[in-house]
Structures are given as C-alpha cells and as structure tokens.
Amino acid sequence: MTEIRPRRSALYMPGSNARALEKARSLPADVVILDLEDAVAPDAKETARAQVSAAVTAGGFGPREVIVRVNGLDTPWGEEDLAAAIACVPDAILLPKVSTPAVLATVGRRLATAGAPHKIRIWAMVETPLAILNIAQIAAAAADQATRLECFVMGTNDLAKETGARLVPGRAPMLPWLATSLAAARAHGLSILDGVYNNLSDAEGFAAECAEGRDMGFDGKTLIHPGQIAAANAAFAPDEAEVARARAIIATFDAPENAGKGAVNLDGRMVERLHAEMARRTVGLAEAIAVRG
Ligand SMILES: CC(C)(COP(=O)(O)OP(=O)(O)OC[C@H]1O[C@@H](n2cnc3c(N)ncnc32)[C@H](O)[C@@H]1OP(=O)(O)O)[C@@H](O)C(=O)NCCC(=O)NCCSC(=O)C[C@H](O)C(=O)O
Ligand SMILES: [Mg+2]
C-alpha cells in the first residue's frame, strides 16, 4: 500500500514574518506552507525569499511537510523564487494560479535542468476560472512523471475575486468548482486540500466548513492562523467510532467463512469488498496520525 501522509491541516505563513516561520517548527500542523506570494508585500519579497530559504535549509520541522509557495513565473519574482525553492529542497513547491498544464511542464523542465532532488514534488493552486475549466487536463499532467504533480490546493479567495462568487456559509456558489476539482484530482491519484476560512473569530463557521470539506472528500484544509489547527486536525481525522467500524469491516472480510462472499450483512448494514478497501485506508490514516502523537 502507498504511504499515507496525513494532510489534515496546512498552515500558510508569510515568508516575511520571521516569528511565524520560527513557530512553524512547533505547531501541530501536518503541513506548513511558507509563502512568498500573496501574503508578502512587493517590497518584502526579497527578504521573504531569503528568510524562507534559510528556514528550510536549517530544517527542524519534524514530521511536518514543508512547502514553499512561490510567485508565478509571469511575475518579477517568480524565476528567482523557483531557483531559491529548488536550492533549499522543501518537500514541495506550490505554484500559484496554475491555469493550464503548460506551466507544469515548464516547471518540470526547470527542475530537471537544475538537477532538483527527486524528493521535491509540485503542488498546484486551483484558483482561477480558467483552472476550473481546464482542471481535467491539469490533473492529467500528473501522468507525466516529469511534472512531479502531487497535490491540488483550492484558492477560494482568488476564485471569489476572479468570479464574483461570494464566500457565504455553506459555499453554495463554489461547490461545483470544489467538487469538480476533487473529482479531477482523484481521477489522477492526486491529493487535494480545501481553501482557507478568513474569519478568525468564527470557530463555529470554521468547524462547519471543515466538516463540509471532509464530507466532500478533501484530505485537509488550508489555514491562516495557528488557532485553526486543532479543529482541522479533528475534522479530517477518523473518529474512534469510524476506526472501530473500519476494523470490524476488515475482520469480517478476513474471516474464513466470508472468503467467497462479495457482500455481507454487518450489524444490519450491507458491506462489500470496496468497503474493506475504504476501511483499510481509514485505519491506515488513523495509524499514521497516531504515530504523530
Ligand atoms: C491573519 C493574520 C494577519 C493575523 O495576525 P495576528 O492578528 O498578528 O495574529 P495573532 O496576534 O493572533 O497571532 C498569535 C500568535 O500566532 C502567530 N501566528 C499568527 N499567524 C500565524 C501563521 N499563519 N503561522 C504561524 N504563526 C502565526 C503570531 O506570530 C503570534 O505568535 P506569538 O508571537 O508567539 O504570540 C496572520 O495570522 C497571518 O498572517 N496569517 C497568514 C496569512 C497568509 O499566509 N495568507 C496567504 C494565504 S491565504 C490565501 O490567499 C490562499 C489562496 O491563495 C486563496 O486565494 O484563497
Ligand atoms: Mg490565492
């Protein structure tokens, strides 16, 4: 089975904020995204790049995945950001505003030319109307190993900006885009993270949006503040009852008397072998989270 990496919580932090970068080493987020793009003002871009390079090179992030979000290659900072990100060897480089597969091919070639370690993967922001229209082709780029594409990250703020859709409770205007991106990601074996929740003082609304993202199938949620980590970690982890049920399903299909059966009745519910596969994933995720403590 492929390794399961919990990505329940992915915390953005501005690369220009030295205090935040320092805190990243101790916060209980599964993923930290060191941002050079929208969280950093134009006159702080160089400082942010230097600070992020130094922080990633210094390491000390423990089990957290370390991601560097660069500026787009069509901006004055993009090329230097990409070179600096490759040089400091994060777990992945997050490309903003990916609207077509072409940019993934271009970045793949840059990585190859630079002799970038295989460990560095590529994550792509899905945050433009064109990305939504092209999402099947963008996801299909993962078939070309040279792109190193591993994960989609929804950029709901930019989607709201570019489309005029409002960020309302329940996210009705965005649900078709979220669901289509999710289907495209899964069709090509990609991980996918939900967008951010901007209202730091609305814990109830945040929990509801986490639950919505989890029920849709997202692996986790992107976050903007440490205060959001615990709720995201709880929402995107299977709870005790789910793990117990998953273990029971696995045991049912492992029992010799069910060896020839495709479907059985477990406590009044039909379970099929596909449920045993899902159950193994649930237990695998729970175990990976438990190792993290
Ligand atoms: C949103 C903030 C500007 C709020 O800042 P502030 O009011 O200063 O926070 P606090 O005083 O509550 O901070 C308390 C302590 O926590 C640390 N902190 C705060 N935020 C972070 C963080 N993101 N990572 C790490 N540590 C953080 C503070 O340093 C305080 O520490 P201490 O000194 O020990 O008390 C701020 O939270 C912030 O800048 N958040 C991140 C903003 C960001 O990265 N935005 C870009 C991504 S969002 C996006 O646009 C996604 C996508 O592209 C899209 O289009 O949707
Ligand atoms: Mg954005």
Automatic annotation (TrEMBL):
Ranges for domain HpcH/HpaI aldolase/citrate lyase: 8-226
Sequence positions that bind substrate: 69, 127
Any one GO BP annotation for this protein: oxaloacetate metabolic process
GO MF, any single term: magnesium ion binding
Positions bound to Mg(2+): 127, 158
Class in the EC hierarchy, top level: lyase
Sorted UniProt keywords: Lyase, Magnesium, Metal-binding
Domain of life: Bacteria
Similarity section: Belongs to the HpcH/HpaI aldolase family.
Protein name: Citrate lyase subunit beta/citryl-CoA lyase
Organism encoding this protein: Chelatococcus caeni
